[in-house]
Design a protein that fits this description.
This protein is mainly α. It contains six helices and three strands; from the N terminus they run E-H-H-E-E-H-H-H-H. It has two domains: 61 residues, Multidrug-efflux Transporter Regulator, Chain: A, Domain 2; 108 residues. The chain is 81% helix and 3% strand. A three-stranded antiparallel sheet has the order 1-3-2. The termini are far apart.
Length: 201
């Protein structure tokens, strides 16, 4: 089964914003959104998850220009999450295949085919249910960890930005003070300054 695609109205509804907001975010953040042969935008589950994340961060008073620097980190985290989920699914499928193989070996050579197929089907369904439950739980855990890590990184980046701005303003203040001091001293020394002082006195 192929990847599910959503048109902009459906995607906007799923994110909980207006369609024009998705278009605005897409343009401002340079997001690579897919298009149909007719040129219409379409969105994947990954795109919708990314928009949810953007919406959450904006609700925490984050500006789009700040988000633009964070998006690569979010994408990286999302790719890591997808990779982990794919690896877990592969391990589960491998384990299921081994278990089914062991069950087949354990059956006596002469068996009732119908009963064997029923048992195999029952075990397959049970294992599939366990895999789905495990994947859901693991996906939630991975999502929580990734979100926590990204927010931690963002906090560090904002802290560094604030420190740089503080240092910049401190240097600017120092330069202004030096300039004022130089002007005061030059007024004291210059003949015009002396004349002005005499006239004022």
């Amino acid at each position: 089964m192929g990847e599910v695609h959503y048109m902009i109205s459906e995607a906007a509804k799923r994110v909980g914003v207006e369609a024009h907001v998705l278009r605005y975010w897409e343009e401002e953040l340079d997001l690579p959104i897919g298009r149909t042969e007719m040129g219409h935008r379409y969105y994947t589950e990954d795109d919708i998850r990314l928009f949810h994340c953007i919406k959450d961060l904006k609700e925490q008073s984050m500006q789009l220009r700040e988000l633009k620097t964070v998006i690569p980190e979010l994408k990286k985290a999302r790719e890591q999450k997808k990779k982990k989920l794919a690896e877990m699914e592969e391990r589960e499928n491998s384990r299921m295949s081994q278990t089914e193989g062991q069950l087949v070996k354990a059956q006596p050579e002469v068996v009732d085919t119908d009963k064997f197929l029923q048992v195999q089907s029952f075990i397959g369904e049970a294992l599939q249910k366990v895999i789905v439950e495990n994947n859901t739980k693991l996906a939630q855990e991975v999502s929580h960890t990734v979100t926590k890590n990204v927010l931690g990184e963002m906090e560090t980046l904002f802290h560094l930005k604030e420190q740089k701005e503080e240092e910049h303003y401190r240097k600017l203040d120092s330069l202004i003070r030096q300039q004022q001091q130089i002007r005061r001293e030059s007024v004291k020394i210059s003949p015009v300054g002396k004349l002005r002082k005499l006239l004022e006195g």
